[in-house]
Design goal:
The structure is a single chain. The protein folds into 2 domains: 136 residues, no CATH class; 120 residues, no CATH class. Helices cover 57% and strands 1% of the residues. The chain is built from 13 helices and 2 strands; from the N terminus they run αααααβαβααααααα. The protein has a two-stranded antiparallel ribbon with strand order 1-2. It is globular and about 75 Å long. The protein starts with 34 loop residues before the first helix and ends in an 8-residue tail after the last helix.
Length: 279
């Protein structure tokens, strides 16, 4: 290993450097808040061969990364009122099958879903009304049914999102006779509201419950994530001079050896799903 040129005073061995995972950003390693989007882009670009190989091995992996490729928890309201309105009736039908369907928790979430269904129905504007509004506004009418409110700017408050996630996560294991569509609706909303490491943890239970679709999802995500980390690690080497690790290797005890050990430590932090502590 080449000797690292020392510059400036050295830190003693009693000095502890505490860094957040965000320090890896300059090297291209991912942060949790963009990980789904990063994996989606990797699977469609540089990692397409890996993505295809893993999917071919697992056969019909029931997961679409593009569905979770943004700040999905923030977008749940938009999805349920816009692009994913089919989930509402499935969730309501599933909750009606709960063995304790009248419990306060189940009733509360059913109330939320019912209100969303009502909002969806009153938000849609029929063609004659859209045409009249276009004439009033002095704008051309494209003959397309429109909505009263822009659903892209509708977001749940954090405690509502957490309540939905908590109840659906528990209820999904308590309802025995869910249809495939209802089970998928539960899984989709739970995934939207989960960060990456939580989703992996939930899917890993499929190996204990013998739920094959969850096993396949875990297999797919774990292998794709490993390939992406290796890809980003290799690409990040050229940016080492811009990273804080270079400073650590110069001022930390042990020089370059110190840098390598720190890098391996924080790479393990990233691959184990640690939440970034810095940005």
């Amino acid at each position: 290993m080449p000797e690292v040129r020392q510059s400036g005073p050295q830190a003693g061995r009693d000095v502890l450097f505490v860094l957040g995972a965000g320090v890896d950003r300059v090297l291209g390693l991912p942060l949790l808040n963009t990980l789904f989007r990063d994996l989606s882009e990797f699977a469609r670009g540089a990692g397409k061969a890996v993505n295809d190989a893993v999917r071919n091995h697992a056969k019909r992996v029931p997961i679409d990364l593009q569905a979770y490729s943004g700040d999905e928890a923030e977008n749940l309201g938009q999805k349920l009122l816009g692009s994913h309105t089919h989930l509402l009736p499935r969730i309501l039908a599933a909750l009606d099958k709960h063995p304790d369907a009248r419990s306060e928790n189940i009733t509360a979430i059913k109330s939320i879903m019912t209100r969303l269904s009502t909002m969806k129905s009153v938000n849609d504007l029929d063609e004659p009304l859209v045409a009249q509004l276009s004439r009033i506004a002095g704008e051309p009418d494209g003959g397309v049914v429109d909505t009263l409110l822009d659903t892209k700017h509708i977001a749940f408050r954090p405690k509502i999102r957490q309540a939905i996630k908590n109840v659906l996560s528990q209820a999904s294991g308590e309802i025995q006779n869910l249809t495939r569509e209802e089970r998928d609706a539960f899984a989709e909303i739970i995934a939207i509201l989960s960060n990456f490491e939580e989703l992996l943890g939930n899917l890993f239970t499929g190996f204990f419950t013998k739920h094959i679709p969850d096993q396949k999802k875990y297999f797919y995500l774990a292998w794709l994530f490993w390939a992406y980390i290796r890809y980003r690690e290799d690409a990040g080497r050229r940016h080492r001079e811009q990273s804080f690790y270079k400073t650590l290797s110069e001022v930390g005890p042990g020089g370059g050896h110190h840098h390598i050990q720190l890098h391996r430590f924080f790479l393990r932090q990233c691959t184990s799903g640690e939440r970034p502590l810095s940005r």
